[in-house]
C-alpha cells in the first residue's frame, strides 16, 4: 500500500483542504493519505479553534486515512523546526511521498531554491547578518539575503514572501537534511490565499478567513458554503456545546493572569522569551483589556506577531527553555485516528515503522509526550471554564478514533 503524507492543522477542515487531499492522492498515485496534524496549539503561536479530536474526525471524514499528532515541541516551533518534526514523522510512518500546498505550484523552483541557499550558505548567512545590523527584523533579513543571492545566481526560484512557499521550502530542507527518501510534491493553492478574507459566494476560503469571519460575528451560516457538510456539522456541534471557539481573545483572562503572576526572571525561564521583553509583557498585561490591545502594546520591529504569539504560548503552557533544548528529534508516533484502510495499513506495516506507535498514552512514559498531554490539559481547562457540564476528551482516556 502506497502512502502520501500531508502536514496539516485543519483549523478548521475546509473545501480547500478536501481539494488538496484529492490532488495529493492523485498526483502521488497513492492508496491512502497519512496526515501529521498539530495538536492543541499551532505553528503561528495560537490555540486551535477546536480541539484535536474534533479536527481528527473532520480529517477522517474528509478523506485522510491515518491522523498522527505533531508533538507540541514542533507544532509551535518556527517553520524550520516545525517542518523537521513533521517530515521526520511522515518518513518514520512509511510515507513514500509528501504533498504540500503552495502559491508557486511547481516543485522544481523549490528544489532550485534549496540548492541556491544551501549551496551558498556562508554568503547567505553573511547577508542575513549584514541586514540585521541595520535594525531589520529577522524575517526581513532573510528576505534581503535571499533576494541578493537570487539576483547573483539567476534561475527560477520561489517567492519566499508567501507563507505556504516558506513552509514548502522548509519541508524540502527537512527531507534533505534528514537524508529521507520521501519524495516532495506540491499542489497549487486555488481560489483563496493564506491571509484572504472570506468572500461572499465563494466555495473555497482560507482557514484564516474562516476564523476571522467567525471571530467577527460567530454566525456559522456564513462559512457553511466553504466547508464540507460534515465539517460544518462538527463545527456547529462544537459551538452548541461550548458557546465559543478557542482563540487568544477567548483565552485572554487566563493568559493575562499567567503573565501578571510571574516575575520577569520567571518569565525568562520559558522558551523563546529573550532580550528583556519579559518586563514589557508584564507591564502591558496589567493595562490591557483584550489580547489585541495587549499585542498592540508589545509589537515592534524586532518581534513579529507570530514570534510574540509563540512566546506567549510557551508561557501559557509552561514550556521551558530546558524542555526545548532537550527535545531533539521525535521519539514516538501518536495515533489520533484511522479509517478502515488506515487500520489495514498499520496492521500490514507496523513492524516497519521506525518509531514506537502510541495509541494508549496512559501506558507510555515519554518526556515529549508528557508535554503534549500537559498542553492539551491547559487547552481543555481554558475551554471548559464556565461550562463544566461539557467536558472535552481527556488524552489519558481517549483511544484513537476509528472511522
TrEMBL record:
It catalyses: cytidine(34) in elongator tRNA(Met) + acetate + ATP = N(4)-acetylcytidine(34) in elongator tRNA(Met) + AMP + diphosphate. It is an enzyme of class 6 (ligase). Keywords: ATP-binding, Cytoplasm, Ligase, Nucleotide-binding, RNA-binding, tRNA processing, tRNA-binding. InterPro entries: Rossmann-like_a/b/a_fold, tRNA(Met)_cyd_acetate_ligase. Pfam families: HIGH_NTase1. ATP binds at residues 7-20, 101, 164, 189-190. Its EC number is 6.3.4.-. Its main location: cytoplasm. It is found in: Cytoplasm. Belongs to the TmcAL family. Catalyzes the formation of N(4)-acetylcytidine (ac(4)C) at the wobble position of elongator tRNA(Met), using acetate and ATP as substrates. First activates an acetate ion to form acetyladenylate (Ac-AMP) and then transfers the acetyl group to tRNA to form ac(4)C34. This is tRNA(Met) cytidine acetate ligase. It comes from Lysinibacillus pakistanensis. The lineage of its organism: Bacteria, Bacillati, Bacillota, Bacilli, Bacillales.
Amino acid at each position: 500500500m502506497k502512502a502520501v503524507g500531508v502536514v496539516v492543522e485543519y483549523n478548521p477542515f475546509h473545501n480547500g483542504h478536501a481539494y488538496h487531499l484529492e490532488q495529493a492522492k492523485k498526483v502521488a498515485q497513492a492508496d491512502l493519505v497519512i496526515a501529521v496534524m498539530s495538536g492543541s496549539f499551532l505553528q503561528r503561536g495560537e490555540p486551535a479553534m477546536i480541539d484535536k479530536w474534533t479536527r481528527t474526525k473532520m480529517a477522517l471524514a474528509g478523506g485522510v486515512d491515518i491522523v498522527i499528532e505533531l508533538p507540541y515541541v514542533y507544532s509551535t516551533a518556527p517553520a524550520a523546526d516545525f517542518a523537521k518534526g513533521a517530515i521526520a514523522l511522515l518518513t518514520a510512518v512509511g510515507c513514500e511521498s509528501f504533498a504540500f500546498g503552495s502559491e508557486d505550484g511547481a516543485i522544481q523552483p523549490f528544489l532550485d531554491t534549496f540548492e541556491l541557499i544551501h549551496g551558498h550558505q556562508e554568503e547567505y548567512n553573511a547577508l542575513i547578518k549584514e541586514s540585521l545590523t541595520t535594525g531589520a527584523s529577522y524575517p526581513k533579513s532573510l528576505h534581503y539575503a535571499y533576494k541578493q543571492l537570487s539576483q547573483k545566481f539567476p534561475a527560477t526560484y520561489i517567492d519566499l514572501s508567501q507563507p505556504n512557499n516558506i513552509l514548502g521550502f522548509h519541508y524540502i530542507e527537512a527531507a534533505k537534511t534528514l537524508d529521507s527518501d520521501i519524495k516532495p510534491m506540491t499542489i497549487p493553492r486555488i481560489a483563496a490565499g493564506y491571509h484572504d478574507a472570506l468572500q461572499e459566494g465563494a466555495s473555497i476560503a482560507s482557514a484564516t478567513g474562516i476564523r476571522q469571519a467567525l471571530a467577527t460575528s460567530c454566525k456559522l451560516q456564513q462559512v457553511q458554503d466553504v466547508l464540507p457538510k460534515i465539517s460544518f456539522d462538527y463545527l456547529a456541534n462544537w459551538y452548541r456545546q461550548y458557546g465559543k471557539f478557542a482563540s487568544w481573545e477567548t483565552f485572554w483572562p487566563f493568559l493575562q493572569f499567567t503573565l501578571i503572576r510571574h516575575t520577569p526572571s520567571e518569565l525568562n525561564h520559558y522558551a523563546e522569551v529573550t532580550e528583556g521583553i519579559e518586563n514589557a509583557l508584564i507591564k502591558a498585561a496589567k493595562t490591557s483589556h483584550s489580547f489585541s490591545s495587549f499585542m498592540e502594546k508589545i509589537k515592534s520591529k524586532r518581534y513579529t506577531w507570530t514570534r510574540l504569539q509563540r512566546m506567549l504560548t510557551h508561557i501559557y503552557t509552561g514550556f521551558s527553555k530546558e524542555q526545548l533544548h532537550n527535545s531533539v528529534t521525535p521519539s514516538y508516533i501518536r495515533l489520533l485516528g484511522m479509517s478502515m484502510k488506515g487500520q489495514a495499513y498499520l496492521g500490514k506495516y507496523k513492524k516497519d515503522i521506525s518509531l514506537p506507535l502510541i495509541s494508549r498514552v496512559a501506558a507510555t512514559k515519554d518526556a515529549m509526550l508528557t508535554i503534549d498531554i500537559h498542553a492539551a490539559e491547559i487547552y481543555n481547562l481554558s475551554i471548559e471554564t464556565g461550562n463544566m457540564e461539557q467536558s472535552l476528551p481527556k488524552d489519558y482516556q481517549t483511544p484513537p478514533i476509528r472511522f
